[in-house]
Each structure stands twice: as C-alpha cells, then as structure tokens.
Amino acid sequence: MASAWAERQVRPVTAGGWVLRVIALLVLWAAWALLVGVILLQAGAIGTSASPAVAASAMLVALLPTWFVVRRAPRRWWLMAGSAVVLVALGLGLGTLGGPKLSRMAAVGSALPVATGAQLLTTSSVQNALCLRECSRVIHLYAVPDAGSAQTEVGESLVAAGWTAQDAGGFCRDEFGVAFTDGVDPEVVDPPRAPTGMQLLSITIGECARL
C-alpha cells in the first residue's frame, strides 16, 4: 500500500499535464499583473519614476506559485530563472504604462512661463493614468497678441529654465513635456472666443515621450 502511494507521488507529469500547468501559470501571471496594476493605480504609484521598479518587485511574488508548477521539471532551476526574467519584464512594462499624475502636470503647467500680453482663458484636462491609448494631459488655452511670437517667447524661456527642445517642436524636462497648438486643442470643450485682435494658443503639458 505504501509503495503504491509512493509510486503515485513520483509519477512523472505527462506532456498534456505540463501544457495544462503552463496555461494555468500564464493565467495566474496575467491575473497577478492585473492586481498589481490596480493596486499601484489606487495607491497613486503609477506614473512615478519609481513605478517600474516597484511593479517589477511586486511581479516577482508570482515566483512562489511558479515553483510549485515547475519543481518536478528536470530543468526547474533554468525554468525559474527564465520565469524571473519574464516577470521582471512584465513588471517593468506595467510600471511604464502610467504617465505622470494629473496633479503633478497641473503644478508644472501653473509654473510655466507666460508670453507677454497673454491671457489665460481656460484650463482643461484629460485623465488617463494608465496611458493605454494616451496619457493624462493638461491644456492651457491662452489668448495672445500673436501665436507665433508667443510660442517663440515661451520656448526661449523654457530653454533658459532647463527644458530641452525636441525635434517635433515641443520641450521636455525629466518626464514632462510641453507642446504648442495654434488655436484650440480638440480636447478643450466649449472654448471661449479670443478677445478682438488676439489669437488663441493651446499649451499642453503631458508625458514627454507621448506628446
């Protein structure tokens, strides 16, 4: 009786059994990644410079159930090492989904230089913390005497303040980006009209890499 029980305990896993285990493991990893993303989002950790490292560390917790899946495999240590690499990569990718928080963008926007004679008409925002299709953005709509001159003046002030000019025409510093739009940005709802003799200029603050 004891020997029969021992034989059942050491019976090798069939190919079909390994397929089912791998599928179950992938489902577990996906569920854990979703949970980690939700927790980071609720905690406000998405969109910070530390979020990739935090997410990667959290994903490594999934190595515990991974060990119970692969421990009977002949090359289990290689499989564990490969799993660790995959989980870290997933965590890094998850951590980079989020851009800067909307409140931080608003703070950056309020500190930007203003062109001579510019009047702030309205401020709009787009909230998308996970940066799936687009990231959160803050848009300042100004009335200016001349849109081209205003862009040049603000751009020069940004460079003087340590921002870096980009080939596409925007400016970046750390993780933040500033971009100009002649007229009204499409995200501004019911924009006010410019005063007589003035032009509209939209200044968008967002994640540098996605503007």
Commentary on this structure:
With 211 residues, this protein is α+β, with helices and mostly antiparallel strands. The chain has two domains: 2-95, no CATH class; 102-210, no CATH class. The protein has seven helices and six strands. It has helices spanning 2-10, 15-43, 51-59, 63-70, 76-95, 102-110, 147-160, and strands at residues 119-126, 137-144, 164-165, 171-173, 176-182, 199-207. It has a six-stranded antiparallel sheet with strand order 1-2-6-5-4-3, covered by helices on one side. α2 runs antiparallel to α3, α3 packs antiparallel against α5 and α4 runs antiparallel to α5 (76-95). The radius of gyration is 26 Å and the shape is elongated. It starts with a helix and ends with a strand. The model is unreliable at 1-8 (pLDDT under 50).
Summarize the structure.
With 211 residues, this protein is of the alpha+beta class.
Could you estimate the helical fraction of the residues in percent?
A: 40-55%
SSE order in H/E notation? HHHHHHEEHEEEE
Number of helices: 7
Query: Largest beta sheet: what is the strand line-up?
Result: 1-2-6-5-4-3
Percent range for β-strand residues: 15-25%
Quaternary structure state of the chains depicted: single chain
Q: Assign an overall shape.
A: elongated
Quantity of strands, as a count? 6
Radius of gyration: 26 Å
Number of domains: 2
Q: Look at the helices and sheets and give the structural class.
A: alpha+beta
Tell me the distance between the termini.
70 Å
Low-confidence sequence ranges: 1-8
- Largest beta-sheet characterization: 6 strands, antiparallel
Residue-averaged pLDDT: 82
